[in-house]
Amino acid sequence: MTELKKKLHDKVAIVTGGASGIGEATARKFALHGARAVVIADVQDQKGQDVAASIGPHCNFIHCDVTDEEQVKSLVDSTVQMHGRLDIMFSNAGIFCSSMQTVLEFELSEYDKLMVVNVRGMAACVKHAARAMVEGGVRGSVICTASVVATIGLKWFTDYTMSKHTILGLMRSASIQLGAYGIRVNCVSPGTVQTPITDSLVNFKDVEQMTKFTASLGIDGGKEFMSPEHVANAVVFLASEDSQFISGHNLVVEGVVDGGQKS
Asked: Which residues are part of the catalytic machinery?
């Protein structure tokens, strides 16, 4: 059996929202691909500590609420102090709507709560990761979690959709501004993935229910649904030298339709 190529050998990475879902799967993939240090950041303390312990001694957990810029700065500074540098920032922390959030019944107070995590928190992570990379002379990789909905509209979930569109704007601007420093900035945009958030919306074990749910959103994901590991593989690609000439790109990972690759 061929030995796994260590795509991230000796790299230092931060994963926000790393205690569960896509973040957890990506932290594990980073370690598997040879990262020297993986820092899991989350507000779920016990889950984050458990995941870090299960990955091994080269992984640690730091509590971080991305809505607090000082906590984000401390996260990045602590990582650099402990490990000497920061090569990869996977800015993944995010939340979902608390209601259907149609335009006619738009709860702006709920919008505010979502945007401060999904957009302000993302901007803080990109800002402080980029500063650390520039100061350290690191030609790093910043990856932001957007969504397949970042380029379309939905019948519901208006504020969530708005937040993911905004993340694309952040990524595209940052990729232009940071290119001179050799720092790449990209997005990964998953389709319907089984995570704690989506588990609260639909039963993934019921294929018919899942198909109806995705169709109702205008997303055709076929009859096979992704796991967080599928998205994590895409993040590893964007973090590694395999994508060294890719920046300002939105990598959509949305599944297979009727045996053919969806474009």
From this structure: 160
pTM: 0.88
Q: Facing residues of 38 across strands?
A: 13, 59
* Other residues' Cβ atoms within 10 Å of the Cβ of residue 32: 15
* Residues 171 and 250: beta-carbon distance below 8 Å: yes
CATH node for 12-193+227-255? 3.40.50.720
**What are the pLDDT digits (tens) for 28-74?**
999 999 999 999 999 999 999 999 999 999 999 999 999 999 999 99
Q: How far apart are CA 240 and CA 162, in angstroms?
A: 29
Extended strands (E) in the chain: 12-16, 37-42, 59-63, 88-91, 141-145, 184-190, 250-253, 256-257, 260-261
Which two three-digit tokens encode residue 201? 């919306």
CA–centroid distance for 121 within its chain: 12
Helices (H) and strands (E) in the chain, counts: 9, 9
For residue 23, give every residue at least 6 positions away whose Cβ sits within 8 Å of its Cβ, in sequence order, or none. Answer: 15, 16, 17, 40, 42, 90, 92, 93
Instruction: Delimit the domains of the chain by residue range.
Output: 12-193+227-255
Separation CA 166–CA 161 (nearest Å): 9
